[in-house]
Amino acid sequence: MSIGIIAIVLSIVAILIVAFILFIVRPRAARPDDLPLPDIAEISQPIDYTSLPEETPRSLGERFLAAPLAIKALVLLAPVVLIGVIAALLLTFGGLGGSNATPTPVPPQPRLVVERAEVAGAGKIVVVVQTENLPAGATLTALMREDGQEFPWFDPETALAQPDPLSGAAQIVLDRRANAPTPRQDATYTVIAIASDQSGEIARSDPATLDVLRPFVNDFYAIAAEPTVAPALTPTATQPPATPEPSPTAVEATRELTGTATIAGNIRREPNREAEVLGRLALGEVVTLIERSIDGEWYRVTTSEGLSGWVSRTLLVVDQNLAAQLPVATPTDLRKAAVFNGGNVRTSPSLRGLVIDQINAGESVFLLARNADSTWLKIINERKMTGWVSRTLLTIAPDDLRRLPVSNETVPTPLPATVAALPPPPTPNATVPPATGLTAIVFNGGNVRAAPNLQGQVLDQINARETVQLLSKTPDGNWYRITNVRGVTGWVNRTLLTIDPDVARRVPVGQ
Questions:
Q1: What mean pLDDT comes out for the span 387-398?
Q2: Which long-range contacts link 298-307 to residues 24+ away (Cβ below 8 Å)?
């Protein structure tokens, strides 16, 4: 019950009390039976009433004291009733008490937090963002600063991403633009994530300090490698001076790829944590890299003492560009499964895992592990990406499923510089339109088709976070002709791409 209604009820009760008092204690008219009998002695002597002094109350107080009880009660209660009625009217009609309407709830404000910003490849910066309360369709981009001033190092047209609808996580890849300014080693670089929709900017994060990973320091700051100077021969006194000869063309010898241990750890017989331990890797020890596992998580190394075995990549600092050129060890004991339906590859065995790649119908994958209830499988896809996929996406033999070890381990988010691409399939004979210079980011993986419809022949795939070249679009804008990172040209559906509206308007219409 509201305050206004309570006040009205109390006012009515007060009025009823006043009326009841007036009714109960009202003065009664004198009846003949109530009059006292006259004194006989007084009857014989008439009284002259005109000679008696008049007793009239002089002040309001005397009048109040001389008034009947009903009048006194009315005088006392009337102001209370009047005040109650006025308060009830004010409270009811928006006076002192204000409106009783339920206030409209304020929607939660969008929020962005940059969890990690690091130079993670040659000419690449990876920004991992956690989002909250973003509206559907919001797009993320980034802003880079040098000592607090905007620093135009990356290409803004490719620095676009959309958050995962379940986890809210997003990964923005900043690619170094042509003629980008050179960073200074004595400057502080920060990155800010920005969210926007059709109305414009809706949220931005606090600045996060950019972390330049050790293998990419020279590339980021454009530090030239120091040339190796051969020691000069000192001629002896008896040796005649050598005749100057033209300097031969320097030929760089094949260099062994090495890694330095940042953490002491085990050297194992096989590239997995359950394999037999052959020895220990000491902190700061330098080892020679021989090959890498198919998922890129392990390196087969040789120590200075001649011990050979597998070491987790988390223990070593390695130049990732050179590591990608290492031969891949072909697994001999891993089981395989066919992909029944395309879907996402995630970092953990749940729908909240970050999407890091896709599998497509008709592909095959290596099986690594399963979760406790066998609803998720840890796999290696044809792009050599390790992650978790739903069991419903694969055709797997029951015996192979039972033999898989149980695991719930989260897969580290891969760096873009270490992702290996599939070999390009044969491109059909078709006239490719000229390049437009317009690009888009792949939001979700899917098929590249020979025609702008679902019946078109599948030529290749596009995968999340890749950049594609936009060549043309259908008149209704539902299909775009693109060239993917493997150089395959074909048609993809609009729903697979994140395209800036201004870029979409500039793509020419074609068939």
A1: 87
A2: 298/271, 298/272, 299/259, 299/323, 299/326, 300/271, 300/329, 301/259, 301/267, 303/267, 303/279, 307/267, 307/278, 307/279
Q: Burial, 285: exposed, middle or buried (Cβ in 10 Å; 0-12, 13-18, 19+)?
A: middle
Residue 48 identity (one-letter amino acid): D
CATH architecture of the region 335-415: Roll (2.30)
174: helix, coil or strand?
strand
The pLDDT value recorded for residue 418 is: 35
- ∠ CA 267-272-278, nearest 5°, is 25
Indicate where the chain has its CATH 2.60.40.10 domain(s).
111-220
> What are the start and end residues of each CATH 2.30.30.40 domain in the chain?
258-323, 335-415, 438-506
The arithmetic mean of pLDDT across residues 75-93, rounded, is 71
Confidence of residue 263 (pLDDT cuts 50, 70, 90): confident
Closest CA to 316 of 332, 298, 341, 304: 298
CATH code: domain 111-220 is 2.60.40.10
Residue 146 predicted with pLDDT over 90 = yes
pLDDT in tens, 6-35: 666 766 776 776 666 655 555 554 455 555
Distance of alpha carbon 142 from alpha carbon 162, whole angstroms: 12
DSSP 263: S
Identify the pLDDT of residue 466. 80
Arch. (CATH architecture) of 438-506: Roll (2.30)
Q: Which residue has the tokens 């044969």?
A: 426
**pLDDT top residue among 63 and 284:** 284
Please report where in the chains the tokens 């002192």 appear, as a residue: 96
For 77, list phi and psi in degrees, rounded to 5.
-85, -25
CATH number of 258-323: 2.30.30.40
Intra-chain end-to-end CA distance of the chain, in Å: 69
Tracing tokens 């953990």 back to the chain, one arrives at 348
CA distances from 448 to 141, 454, 468, 480, 509 (A): 26, 10, 11, 10, 18
- Give the span between the Cα atoms of 237 and 407, in whole angstroms: 73
Q: Which helix (H) or strand (E) is 501 found in, with range? A: helix 501-506
Burial class, 174, CB count within 10 angstroms (exposed 0-12 / middle 13-18 / buried 19+): buried
- The span from the CA of 169 to the CA of 192, in Å, is 15
pTM here is 0.34
For residue range 212-257, list pLDDT tens digits in order.
877 678 888 887 644 444 444 444 444 444 444 343 333 333 457 8
